[in-house]
Amino acid sequence: EQMRLHMATDAGKDIAKKVGLVYQFNIAPKKIGVDEEIFVVDLKKGEVTKGPYEGKPDATFSFTDSDFLSIATGKMNPQIAFIRGAIKIKGSISAAQKFTPDIFPKPSKL
User: Fold this and answer.
1) Beta-carbon count within 10 A of 49 CB
2) What is the pLDDT of residues 65-105, one digit of tens each?
3) 95 vs 66: CA distance, rounded Å
4) b/e per residue, 87-103, with b = 16+ CB within 10 A?
């Protein structure tokens, strides 16, 4: 819900315009690939939806909810998380490299 509100702000709209990609997040409670909740952050339309993307997202990220929270709050760098195996990525590597914590609301808003 916080992401939806963030996408409606001027900062969210600027990020959507700058990035212009579709990311799918598969978030698991404990283990990647098990009982995942799926969310789509569509930075082409500036929308956030629950459920798989209809079509092919530019990049799909799979992680645990604790690693997702660390990335969303800026406590963990996405590139470092990938190197450590905390994130699994499918799709375009160049699109994945444009994924930064800037797309999330600031921690005070979470």
Assistant:
1) 16
2) 999 888 888 888 888 888 999 999 999 989 988 887 777 77
3) 23
4) bebebeeebbebbebeb
Domains, the chain, ordered by start: 2-98 (3.30.1050.10)
Tokens of 47: 């929308």
What does the alpha-carbon distance between residue 31 and residue 37 come to, in Å, rounded to a whole number? 12
Contact assessment for residue 51 and residue 40, using Cβ atoms and an 8 Å cutoff = yes
CA distance 15 to 6: 10
This prediction's pTM: 0.82
